[in-house]
Amino acid sequence: MYLCGPTVYDNAHLGHGRSACAFDVIRRYLIYKGYEVIFISNYTDIDDKMIKRANEEKITVKELADKIIPEYEKDYSALNILKPNKQPKATEHIETMIKMVKALEEKGVAYELTDGVYFDITKFSNYGKLSGQNLEELQAGARITKDEKKKNPQDFVLWKKSKENEPSWDSPFGAGRPGWHIECSAMNFDIFGETIDIHGGGLDLIFPHHECEIAQSESYTGKTFVKYWLHNGFVKVDNEKMSKSLGNFFLLKDIFKKYDPLVVRYLLISQHYRNPIDFSDTVLNQAKNSLKRIQEFVFRLDNYKNYSAQSFVNLQQILNSGKENFEKYMDNDFDTSGALSALFELIKEVNKLIDEQKLTQNDIKEIKNLTKKFDSVFGILKTTADEKLPEEITNL
Fold it and tell me: What pTM value is reported for the model?
């Protein structure tokens, strides 16, 4: 399972958090179902944005990456995201990128210009299939400048010839650096080989990034690149896509100053991963209240002492129904919204039994075990020695 990771020129924003949380839950549920999951998420550490920011800060691109990557790790840890099995950096796989570009050129699907090597999209018949784009319409609608020498307007760069004061690597096509699309293909190939099971990313990556990955990878190997593509929805602010240009851009570290990271995680997984999420203080406070309800339930279980002599006759039915509903929703394209509703229904039923003192010590143990199983997927009840429950709960 491979998730397109961030370009590490700036700190993680809410959109990064959405993608990371969405695929963390998907990974956790596959583990819950008994799959052995190898999860990879990369860092793009060479890119136009990296070079621009490094020049602005008067540091090297590597120094910029070395500064930003630990910040991502800190924010993702706060969101209780499981660490990937491996987190490759693009610059660690340059050799494979060069090898792939050379092979694509030899196969006649790539060609060299004065500024770099390009992939000829007309040589790959399935280009546009993932995103539902029509190649002829793409070509007709594209704008090209007079000095454009590409064979087709949508041809994408595989290797960029070096410019002054830019990082570069020697290659058969001259010194330069990889294009963005070839980076993910090379990292996937080095780690997983020709075909991977699941490839994820944001909706904005479907075109052109993932289309280009498919074209170059399948042209290189002659095999299916990805069995299942999954894409998470955008974060919106006041029903507009979050973006720097609109001034509605939020860094995770800034949000964490005001809200518990687990409240933010709850919000980010509370909708189906493909649906957009509207971000505001109102919905964050709703998420806070929902998470508080779950925390209060766990607190009641932990502090229940008035054990009944006999087990409640219908408890097993309640637990089985809760588990079945949870799995029913998660089995339906990882519907976390429905799965959370199954948890809240369980909480409602069990709270009645707690109020009526109808539970044995073993009953409490079974309820706790099921709640922990649910949270092994949701990841919203993380507690450590220095992470205490909210005071209003411990004072209950």
Answer: 0.93
